[in-house]
Amino acid sequence: MRFLTLILVALIALLQYPLWVGKGSWLSVWKNDAELVKQKGINEQLQARNASLEAEVNDLKQGYDAIEERARNELGMIRHDEVFFQVLESHVPARAAPPSNIPDQPL
Q: CA distances (Å), 10 to each of 4, 7, 16, 75, in order?
């Protein structure tokens, strides 16, 4: 009887081996599932980038507004009949408050 029990336990262990360690095992399924989740995230990012690039291509194909905007912003170009004004911000220090021991009004 004891011999039969050992044979059955060994047979069950041999049947379980491919399930846990072999090709198509639970371990490889878990690993593949983690890779799938990671790849889906990458694919979503790439789809968003592709959508923005497609929208930009459509804008460039349809009209001159997008081309003009790029020429102005990226290349600093202006039209032939335009006058360009550049406004610079001046960083003048604020006036300091007079010390408290000096009176505001002359004597």
A: 10, 5, 10, 76
